[in-house]
Input
Amino acid sequence: MRYKGAVSRTYFDLIKKHVTELHTLYPGLRLQIFDISERLSQEQFDELREIVKELNPQCIVWGTALGQSPNLDSDTVISTWMWTPNARLNAARSLSQHHQRSQAAQKAFVLNIGPDQAGEIPKDQLAVLMQVK
Output
């Protein structure tokens, strides 16, 4: 698998740049999940957490490794985690049902979207998001 091993300095610098951009452009974010945290050293994870806390003090930071186990379910608006042209969308009804099951189990529900190449949320995904209850 190509996503194994430690995060290189070059890649980590890119991650820091993206996290800084994300929390600068969207200061209202309340949750940041690093799902690559098993590849980060404790120092790298701590540095990312500090960036988030500096730019967005009210944001909770979770990692999927390093002894953290967020109590959450997740799903995607599109059928894959990453945007592709003409991506198949998951039905809003199915996503709503998943959300309701998560609530009943007292789990956080994270609904992923796939920004396009310009970093925008495509209108078809936004339409699905607006229907999820």
About this structure: The mean pLDDT is 87.
